[in-house]
User: What shape does this take?
Amino acid sequence: MLADVLAGEPLDYDSPVPLYHQAARVLEAAIEDDRLPEGSRLEGEMELATQLGISRPTMRAALKELVDKGLLIRRRGIGTVVAPKPVRRTVALTSLYDDLEEAGREPRTRLLSLETGPCPPDVAEYLELGLADSVVRFERLRMAVETPIAHMHNVVPVGVLEIGAEDLERTGLYRLFREAGITPHIATQRVGAHRAGTEEAGLLEIEPGDPVLTMTRITYDKAGRPIEYGSHSYPAESYWFEMTLVDL
Assistant: This one.
């Protein structure tokens, strides 16, 4: 498929525009018009260089340009692929599952763990619990079709919501709250970043050391009761947040 995409795209060796940038533009145009859809795996540097009639170092520079722009990503054990389109999230009290569904991205969930036990010390204060109070803890990998897009840890106080493995694989947590008559009403949220460790990189199918966007959130119902603590991480190229700023 890539050979067909590159066919008829000659580079201008007499142009003042560097060859690596010309090559990057050829691939970028194919990505933008969906001739190279998200998830498409690119051939090796040598094969691409041969098809475009340039050197391997020049091709490497072209690919780096597109990786730096977030159009290509290097997937662990897979190689270079076309990056998924970022999920646009407004800074609002919405769930990732609903945002993916609204964007037509076919959300899926892989449940990694589910257990009941004492509240973790670093979470107890946020949920207004004692260390002996019981909570439900679960870890999930959220997918957009087959692409890992979020690694999620959540803690819910026991007695707030009955949660089963089938429920967590079927839909999002906020939808489960609403199905039980509980309305997530307000939340405090902190967004940060770090570099992926080995285990996290394996789950998100990125390279160790790649940038990861992080978010922690404490959600309250209409009575002001803490109902959930969440700590999530996302591949940096998969996300951007949108907000409106007003000068009061």
